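Quiz preparation item.
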């Protein structure tokens, strides 16, 4: 509703776990490092705790994207189970067949024997097994004891089952009980995810605005950001709720800036906190409630009328990367604001009376940013070198097709998506004056990126890169044999056969145990696990992810030195 008013492509503060909006603070990176260390550390338990809305699920999603190859994963998100129900769920997640001899229902021994046999078999072929239990604070003491017993199966070098427990702070208290001391001693890595600091809160808000398409100054005033941190205590989910309501309030007032008064009023609506709004402001808000409420209803109806099926972006290759009209490969599901919400925040004020926004602050870019290549064709040639392509003087994309490669262009992407795709890409960057430049992203680390222009490489912080990059990128990808476009269940030919074989060969545990046998269901499940739009149709981004998991020969991003 308010996105276009602020010059955004979409609402930036949806609470849906859209990976494009992922902001990895230092704490989130450290939490991720603990999970990765635990998986490689020889087995046992890994513990990740944090307050509600602190980002535990976000860290877990990133962990699943970076989990080592040849690793089977079972994910339990509803741990309010008995011992028997949990063991059956684990076997289902690992796709372990189990049976019972004689009359009656399967017993604990039936499930444990089948699981132990599976662990020994997979270990013999060099595979690891990870069990992730979310909301683990809901586990009962007898279930925790059964989990401890599952880790008894081990070799001389490592335990055969790695268990990751993710939960709220009370999980730490549970494991400190005397009766669970044996389990507590098997925790090889533990991390408590704290909330964001005041500085990180401001960076978090700015990051989401930039991903949503912000090109000018931050609409949140400094005092408003300080107030947001105080009201939300730095918890990301609370920040999203408050900022979304505050921007709606500013939109209702016709203001391009969000000040402290608007934040206080929004907090009263979202968190039921006392508002700190002067009487004259309250009168103004109430006077225009009916007008803004009507606008809200009409806007929701208009969006409903216009909403159509979403498609995976980037199929066509326009002449200029800067003018790519295709939508991003990941689409956010932003909830529509209700008319009641708009009524509670509504007011009308003439936009003409608002002073102009200050110019954007200079970006922290390399001193020679102006020397970034302004020739897109030269950027494609530099990217082609990483793919060992030898394009002629003609079109690079035409030359790539002769080697079973295609060009892909996307908009609205994020650094998280680039990490997922794990391939060199051509970025369109802009400085604070809007001057464009092309650079090849050749390495992407936790805090730094390595950009290549011509024969030179330069390092840039991820903060500076996110300021200069608005989600426009291009790359090559290796197509299936006979590929002619997006593949779905109705497609026929070599490309469709290739896709069916790839989906059938996915590692155990990558797709939920409940996934059906149909190709559409498997594609949707795969897209969901990869954070993609689950439309059941395999477009370029879905196929790139399949290539990566299948080990198809394509260049990968390096780690900055």
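Solution:
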């Amino acid at each position: 509703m308010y996105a276009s008013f602020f010059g955004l492509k979409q609402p930036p503060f949806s609470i849906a776990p859209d990976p494009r909006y992922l902001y990895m603070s230092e704490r989130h990176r450290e939490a991720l490092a603990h999970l990765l260390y635990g998986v490689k550390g020889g087995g046992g338990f890994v513990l990740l705790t944090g307050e509600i809305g602190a980002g535990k699920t976000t860290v877990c999603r990133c962990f699943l994207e970076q989990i080592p190859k040849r690793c089977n994963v079972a994910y339990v998100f509803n741990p309010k189970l008995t011992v028997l129900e949990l063991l059956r769920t684990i076997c289902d997640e690992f796709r372990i067949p189990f049976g019972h001899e004689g009359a009656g229902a399967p017993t604990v021994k039936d499930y444990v024997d089948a699981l132990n046999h599976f662990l020994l078999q997979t270990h013999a072929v060099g595979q690891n097994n990870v069990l992730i239990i979310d909301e683990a604070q809901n586990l009962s003491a007898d279930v925790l004891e059964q989990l401890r017993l599952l880790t008894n199966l081990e070799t001389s070098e490592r335990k055969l089952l790695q268990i990751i427990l993710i939960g709220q702070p009370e999980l730490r208290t549970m494991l400190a009980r005397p009766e669970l001391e044996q389990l507590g001693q098997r925790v090889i890595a533990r991390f408590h995810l704290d909330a964001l600091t005041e500085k990180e809160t401001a960076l978090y808000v700015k990051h989401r605005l930039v991903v949503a398409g912000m090109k000018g100054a931050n609409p949140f005033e400094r005092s408003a950001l300080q107030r947001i941190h105080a009201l939300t205590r730095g918890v990301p989910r609370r920040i999203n709720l408050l900022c979304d309501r505050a921007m709606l309030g500013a939109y209702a007032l016709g203001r391009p800036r969000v000040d402290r008064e608007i934040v206080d009023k929004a907090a009263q609506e979202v968190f039921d906190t006392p508002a700190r709004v002067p009487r004259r402001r309250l009168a103004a808000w109430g006077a225009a409630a009916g007008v803004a409420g009507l606008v809200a209803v009409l806007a929701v109806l208009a969006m409903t009328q216009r909403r159509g099926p979403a498609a995976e972006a980037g199929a066509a290759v326009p002449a200029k990367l800067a003018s790519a009209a295709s939508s991003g490969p990941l689409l956010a599901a932003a909830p529509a604001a209700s008319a009641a919400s708009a009524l509670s925040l509504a007011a009308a004020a003439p936009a003409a009376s608002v002073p102009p926004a200050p110019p954007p602050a200079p970006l922290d870019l390399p001193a020679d940013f102006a020397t970034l290549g302004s020739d897109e064709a030269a950027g494609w040639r530099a990217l082609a070198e990483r793919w060992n392509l030898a394009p002629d003087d003609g079109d690079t994309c035409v030359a790539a097709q002769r080697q079973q490669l295609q060009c892909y262009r996307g908009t609205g992407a994020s650094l998280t998506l680039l990490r997922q795709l794990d391939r060199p890409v051509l970025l369109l960057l802009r400085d604070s004056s809007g001057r464009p430049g092309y650079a090849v992203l050749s390495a992407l680390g936790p805090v730094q990126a390595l950009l290549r222009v011509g024969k030179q490489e330069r390092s840039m912080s991820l903060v500076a890169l996110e300021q200069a990059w608005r989600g426009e990128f291009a790359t090559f990808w290796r197509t299936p044999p006979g590929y002619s476009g997006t593949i779905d269940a109705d497609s026929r030919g070599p490309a469709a056969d290739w896709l069916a074989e790839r989906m059938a060969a996915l590692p155990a545990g990558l797709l939920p145990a409940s996934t059906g046998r149909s190709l559409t269901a498997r594609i949707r499940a795969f897209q969901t696990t990869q954070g993609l739009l689950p439309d059941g149709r395999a477009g370029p981004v879905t196929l790139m992810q399949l290539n990566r998991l299948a080990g198809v020969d394509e260049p990968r991003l390096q780690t900055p030195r």
